Each structure stands twice: as C-alpha cells, then as structure tokens.
Amino acid sequence: MSTQIPFRRELTFAYGRVEEVAPHVRRVIANNPSPFTLYGTGTYILGHGEVAVIDPGPADAAHVRAILDATRGEKITHILITHTHMDHSPGCALLKLEVDAESYAYGPHGAGKLEEGVPVEEGGDMLFRPDVLVRHGDIIQGSNWSVECVYTPGHTSNHMCFQLRESRALFTGDHVMGWSTSIISPPDGDMAAYMRSLDLLLERDDAVYWPTHGPCIDDPKGLVRAFIAHRHEREQQILACITRGIGRIREMVPVMYTTTPEFMYPAAARSVLAAVEYLVQKGELACDGPVAMESRYRLPD
Q: In this structure, is residue 11 part of a structural domain?
C-alpha cells in the first residue's frame, strides 16, 4: 500500500493583508498563485518593534508595500532568505530600497554546489547576494527574538530553514510543505542531500513548521516520515520500471505519475532524474554514459 501523505491545503487569507498566525509571528501572502506556489508566497514577520522578515517573495512592488504597511511604526532589522528561487528572494532588493536591514542567507543561488565545483545553470535569482552568510547552527539575534539557522540542502543547494527559538517554530521554506512534496531538480537540486536534510529534521525538537506556501504543519515528524517513505516508494517504482524494460525517464513518468496532469510531467521528470541520480550513487542503478534526462538506465551488472 502506498504511503498516504496527510496533505493540508485549506487556508483562509486575503492577499496583502497581514495576519498574526502565532505569537510573535505574522504573515502576508503575495498574489502569485501557481501549481508550484499554491496560493502564493507567504512572507513571515518575526517579533514586534524591531522585526525580521523571512522570504520577502517575488519582485512584486505591491507585495513589498504590503510588508511595509504591515510593519508601519516598526523597524525591519533583518531579512532572512530560505533560498533563491524567484518566488522567495527577489523581493529582498525592493525591500532594501525602503529599509536599512541586512539580508541573511547561506549564499547566492547554487552556493552549496559551487562550493563542490558543480556548476549550476541559471534559473534562480542570480542577482541576490546576501549581506551576511550564515551556516548551520548559527544564531541570529534580534532585539526581542532569536533564530537558529538549520541548513537543509536538497530542494536547492543553498536552502536554509530558520527556527524561532522562543517557540521552537521552524520556518521551512520549500524543504517541507504541508500541501505538496518538494520538487528536486538537478543539478542544484540533490536527492541525496534532500534525504539527509529530512533525516536531520527527525533529530530535532521543532514544535511546528511554517512553510512559505500553504498552512502550518502541526505534526512535523509525522509528515517528514511520510515524505521519506514516499521517496523510497518512488525509488521502488523506478526499479520496477527498469525490470519491465522501461529505461528512459520520459517513459517512466506516465507510469509513475498516473494522477498527475500532463502539463506537470516536465517537473515530475526532474524529480525522477534526481531519484535516478541518487539510485546510481547508491549503486542500485546504472547507465552507459552520464546521468542525464535522455540516458537509458538499467540494473547494475
């Protein structure tokens, strides 16, 4: 029986309106809904008086204005970026035109791969450069709040979660969402890193997750365990395809994603590529030539 992931998609909100979703946590949702963002990018505001902003969203002047309106009479002192996809970080540049605050992130787009000598093609926010580089375990101290940095590469190589230490609330970006699994798209996306990052979360004591898209996750470890099981099932589906003589990714996708609309097949194929790459790394799959979308895969000799 396949793993039943307890997805939650219901959310009551209005675009541009700030809402206090938990003590010392407010959220403003950008009007950029899509199959990849659900209702849009949820920008979080931590603290009161002197505050931090997590993921100011796309380069949308109306959304940045909503963030400024939500913090009128307060001071934005920190801008925290989970990662550099176009629905998360470009709003930082617009926000910094209005406020005197430094940005904090693991690094520019592809930073985690560039450190390993792996080039990453354009596709993210290539203009973003954080003012302050942060690493796993770093503490960012505000005047009335503090945040622990939790490095979770996989969805992107520079993905960083942030825990509001006072309430053990983890802001998970796109690493763990309650409405959907994350797309892992090589070369910047890395399934091996993603699985290690999920394992890392199981070792933690976070009380609740606040993803950038969708509602909160109030059973964090239960959802993470379901995601891990789901990825293992995808691996088994790939191996079953190989056994049936289906050796190319484009042929696997319709077999594996029977309930997914065809317009989502390209994104699904990227996730299959990531899983195939991981299986090759583990020695459970082989191919003649490089791991690539058009290669033919087989069981090892």
A: no
Residues 272/249, Cβ–Cβ less than 8 Å: yes
CB atoms under 10 Å from CB of 219, counted, come to: 14
- Specify the DSSP class assigned to residue 262: G
**Beta pairing, strands 102-105 & 50-54:** unpaired
Domains held by the chain: number: 2
240: Cβ–Cβ under 8 A, 6 or more apart, which residues? none
Q: What is the CATH number of the domain that holds 104?
A: 3.60.15.10
Report the C-alpha gap between 75 and 68 in whole angstroms.
Answer: 10
Q: Write out pLDDT tens, residues 84-142.
A: 999 999 999 999 999 999 999 999 999 999 888 888 877 899 999 999 999 999 999 99
88, with CB counted inside 10 A (0-12, 13-18, 19+), is buried
Let me know whether 93 and 239 are in one domain: no
Tokens of residue 235, six digits: 């691996």
* pTM, to two decimals: 0.95
Distances (CA, A) of 105 to 31, 74, 80, 109: 24, 23, 6, 10
Bridge partners, residue 34, by sequence = 38
Within-domain flag for 47:
yes
